[in-house]
Amino acid sequence: MKKLIALFFALATCALTAAEPVRELKILTIGNSFAWSVFKSLRSIVEADPSCKVTIVAANMGGCSFERHWKYYQEGRKPYAGKYSLKEMIRQDKWDIVTIQQVSQFSWRPETYQPYADNIVRLVRENAPQAEIVVQQTWSYHANDPRLTAKVWKIDQDMMYDKLTAGYTSLAQKYDCRIIPSGYAVQLYRKAVGKEKLQGPDPAKFAGLKEGENPVNPDVVGNFTWGKDRKTGKTVFRKDPIHLNFRGEYLQGLVWYGFLFGKDPEKSACVPAGISREEAALLKRCAASAVRDFPQVKKGYKRPAALQK
Asked: Taking Cα atoms as reference points, which of 140, 58, 67, 56 lies closest to residue 105?
């Protein structure tokens, strides 16, 4: 009996010794709603992995561009969490990672980045020298966004993606930064599903919808659903062709998890309610491919060992 007990404790000790050490990251996002969208999903994905721990804090403002973030700082304003300046947010903790990104409507126009991105990078480096600055690549809008027409922006969905990618790549190259390929993962998903299946919902049919009828949207970008108007309290049909839906937020979280923690997203144990195992598997594959294959420009970059081919 004593030998069995001794064997049990020996095996338990070996298991604890072999367990993967916990890696904790402290992340500050300087962005907008395209950064907010990762918070819930990333936390859930990390919670499902006992070897990872994350603290993620936002210096985000809805619709906030590089220019507006910098102007808030210049004017001495404290809009973050209702009481902090940008410098105070940067100094608030010993961040491991600070992410930056342009607001989506200007993301495809690199001429809008500067000199504001330069100023923000300098502010971070002066006040959080220990932090790695990482660029989040955002994504192109839903194909039915009215701005993606010959009359408005004169670009289509793929052109928007190519232009924003060029802008983020140039910024990352200038400061020798890594890029979180959120937008690339969206493109990979669209390619996997097929463009012919991603054209809906048809805006022309929105007027005929009855309350509670939600059009099918196969894309991970776009929210087309009913909700209450904040001013009137009436139930209205909302058309949002730019933000990630809950499947897209899960995809974004998987990309950040794989990229920042060096993990294989396909092995994540987290599958949110409302997403089938089959679709989760597709989203995981797209996230893993994005992290593995996106062309990083940082000198000496090595893809995570967990995603080596």
From this structure: 140
* DSSP-assigned letter for residue 32: S
3-state DSSP call for residue 57? strand
Question: How many whole angstroms separate alpha carbon 100 and alpha carbon 130?
Answer: 16
Q: What is the pTM of this model?
A: 0.90
Contact 243, 31 (CB under 8 A): no
State mean pLDDT over 103-119. 98
pLDDT at 117 over 80: yes
| 35-83: pLDDT as tens digits | 999 999 999 999 999 999 999 999 999 999 999 999 999 999 999 999 9
Helix (H, G, I), strand (E, B) or coil at 123: helix
User: Considering only the top CATH level, what class is 24-194+243-307?
Assistant: alpha beta
Domain ranges of the chain: 24-194+243-307
Is 104 strand, coil or helix? helix
CA atoms within 13 A on the CB side of 303: 15
Q: Who contacts 169 (Cβ-Cβ below 8 Å, separation ≥6)?
A: 179, 295, 297
Q: What is the pLDDT of residue 210?
A: 73
Cα 78 → chain centroid: 25
Which residues have a Cβ under 8 Å from the Cβ of 303 and sit 6 or more positions away?
291, 292, 296
